[in-house]
Design goal:
The chain is mostly beta strands. The protein has one domain: Cathepsin D, subunit A, domain 1 (Beta Barrel). A hairpin with a 3-residue loop joins strand 5 and strand 6. The mean pLDDT is 86.
Amino acid sequence: MVDADNTAQLPVLGWREWFALPELGIVQIKGKLDSGARSSCLHSTAVERLGYAYLRFRLPPSGKTARERWCQAPLLGYRWVTDSGGHRELRPFIRTALAVAGERWPVEISLTARETMRFPLLIGRNALAGRFLIDPEQSYRCGRHRP
């Protein structure tokens, strides 16, 4: 929890930003910040278990020059997630590094198909809490992430 005196010192992000997922080899990915969502999620398909503790999954192409990418990450477990339409889904969660605005920290992200959504990455309030403020009138305040 951040008290009111410390909020003035927090960096400000727009409602959408360019992020990086360096442990997954993702240098740039568009993400929507959603303080109404508890957890974060990443558009992925073909999710498969590798033994007991790892997942392998496909990140479909996004953008004009992107290619599909296969990733692996440690499996944290499965949790029920209710989407904005009220539908419940049992999703796998991974922990990986997220980077934006010169900051990098570990976050928990669920993997799910988001092909009908405009952003392949949704960042929920658990990943943002105490780190940033969101200005809903601005977009891409931090520019593109540079490795």
